[in-house]
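=== RUN LOG ===
request id: a7f3
mode: sequence -> structure
chains: 1
length: 184
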Amino acid sequence: MKSQQQVMKPQDVFILLKISCLEDKSWQQRSIAKELFMSQSEISESVNRSKYAGLLDYSGKKVMKLAFLEFLKFGISYVFPQRPGQIVRGIPTAHSAPPLNNIIQSEEKYVWPSAKGNTRGQSIIPLYKSVPNAIINDQKLYELLALVDAVRVGRAREKEIALNEIKRRIMNENNNSNDAEMIL
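=== RESULT ===
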C-alpha cells in the first residue's frame, strides 16, 4: 500500500482563520465552503490535513489555538512566503489594512490584486484565490488575513505587532493593550 505525504496548503490557513473567527461556535463544512467560495470537498480535505498536522482537534471542529499560533509565528513566512510584486489595483492587506493601518504609517501600500479594490499598491498574492470575495462580508476574517500577510511580508516590528494582534483575536482576548508581549 502506497502512503501519501500529508502536506499543508495555503487554503488550510485560510480555513483555520475562518474557523477561528467563529469563536468556538458550531459550524458545518457546507456553510464554511459557501462563505469562503470553495467546494465542500476542498474544506473536507483541508480539515483532514489540519487534523493530521495537529492544528484541529480530533473532531475536526475546533482549532488547536496554541499550535496554530505557533505555526503562524514560526512557520507561515517559511512555508507560504510572499514578496511584494508589481503595482496593481486591489484590496489593502498587511500593514495597509485594518487594524495595522491605524498603528503603522507607511508610504508603501500592499494589496491583494482585485477589480473590487480601489487602492493601488504592490501586489501580495493571497493565501487562496477566493480571499477577496470571502472578506467582503466578514471583517474579522479580513483583519486576520491581513495580519497573517503582515507576518508573511513584514519586517520584525510589523511581524511582532501582527502576531500580538493575531494572538489576541484567536485567543478571544478582549483587552486592547499595546504591550509588546510576544506570543508563546
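=== NOTES ===
The chain is about 45% helix and 10% strand.
The helical segments are 10-21, 29-36, 40-53, 65-74, 76-79, 131-134, 139-153, 156-170.
=== END ===
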